[in-house]
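Standup notes
- DV: blocked on the single-chain target, sequence here:
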Amino acid sequence: ELLTLRTELKLLKQVWDCVGVVESLFGSWSDTLWLDIRPDDLVDECKKLATHVKRLPRRLRDWPCYLRLQGSVQNMASILPLVSELRSPCMRDRHWKAVASECHKPVDKGPGFCLADLLKLQLHEHVEGIMEIVEVAQKENKVEQKLKQIEQFWSVACLELARHKDTEVQVIVSPDDLIETLDEHNIQLQSMAAMGRAVDFFRSDIQAWQKTLGTIEAVMRILLMVQRAWAALEAIFLGSQDIRAQLPDDTKRFEGIDGEFKETMTSIFAVKQVVSVCEVDGREKQLEVMYKELELCQKALTEYLDMKKNIFPRFYFVSNMALLDILSNSNNPTKIMPHVGAVFDGIDRLTFALPSRLEQLEDESLSDDEPKKEKPPTEASSMVAKDGEDVPFEDHFMMEGAVEVWLNELVTFMRDTLRGCLVTALEEASSWDTERPREEWVAYHCAQIALITSQIVWTEETETALDDLENGTDDAVKKYLDVCKGRLDALIKQVQGDLSKELRNKIITLITIDVHSRDIVGALITKRVENAQDFLWSSQLRYYWAADARDADIRICDYRSVYSFEYVGNCGRLVITPLTDRCYVTLTTAIRLFLGGAPAGPAGTGKTETTKDLSRDLGLPCYVFNCSDQMNYQTMADIFRGLSQAGAW
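- DV (later): unblocked, structure below
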């Protein structure tokens, strides 16, 4: 028994020695001031003590003194991480009040606040509550920092303004960065508002900034809309005398808006600071009223332009600014010429004719003292293509009256001119083999007429050969193939000589089509076609001259049409391949069935050019539009209205 007692006393001494060390160490920590505490060092020391306690003999682990020692070390191990968290710079006085409330004990965080004061709070009994308070403090700190950034940015954010064109009006430029930052801050405020309890302290600030930024967003949006509308209409209503005369009421309305807008922009330029500019009482409502008035002006202008477009549908294919320039120079054709190329597929400009002899005599009869007022030319003698080809008119074309009226007359005049040229070319083509050979004849006619004439003659001669074959002349088509080869060789020989650029391009286009024509005649022989009703022949684009109507009839499969005589100039043609033939058959059949066509394939394979070539073969105007993100349903509607009324592709 004495041995057992001796052993237990030794064990008891070990425990109490350890208790002495722990209490002595914890006692020394208790006096450490709050700002001097090094939580990481204390945590390391506590871990060592916990390890030492665990290594004590197993026999004494049920003893009350051991359990008290173990509990003391464990409590300290729980408290020290909380101490580290509570030392966070995020902790404010309100959070310490929350800690005192959680622990149900007062906290005096004065200069003498030390670890002993914290230990009295029994933090190990409120670990979850304390951690929640610290977490709220950290989230509130993030919210506070973001609110400071937002406040700092908008306290100095200013609008960038610059002069509008040649006016003295200051307008907002480059607002994209400002709008982007505004959107970003709005998103941040929404995220903060959804953080629940963590933002209760800042909720009023967040709501105030949400209201402020909402006002800025609304005012900036309507302000930029008004500015864009004003900038688009300013040059029109203040600079175009034609519009001022045609729309006097809307001009007066715009002048009132113009004065109000300039006054608003002057006040904005004087302040510039975004928040101050946008929080002016009644500014948003004032801008909304201005925008509604500008919309009325825009609507009136659109209706006026639509009226002009309905008279001359090709105006749908020019911008409103270009159209206004055309209308404002209605009495000066020279200033309209730069826009002619936008409404005509092939015409670049008209060649103005000298005044008639009668007008010259009238000018000469004026006295020397009377100043001569130079009149703009009103007569045109020819049309010039975009490639430089010049096609003379049979008579002078008069450009008088409303521009939309004489442009409509120009369409008819252009077609009548080409129809007359075709009649002359066909008459001369009948003497290719006797008087003037084809390779010489081509120089006397424009490229479009030379090409259509050649195709009419080829169609007629091929069908004649097929009829002869059907009537018993076995080598009729073979003989005609030799004729085709001979004419092609003559053109090839001529193009090898010294020619002008215009004539060379014309002959190259003829050679391109002649090669296809030769190949078709060769295919008729190879596949032993016996009459003109065979599909191989009927699937070709064929031209027939109707002398009585002075029209060229076009046929391919079941499709029937009349050549439209839209001038295209001396533009080249694509080489015709079997795929091109199939495209032509498909597209023309679709037209006959009142359907559309949508050629598909990789980029650069000729979808657009094949469609344009087919339109030229039919003598139709063809417009190509590149889609962009700025196009909307109204833009598309204008395009379709123009195409349907102009009969264009």
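- Follow-up: The first strand starts at residue 161 and ends at 163.
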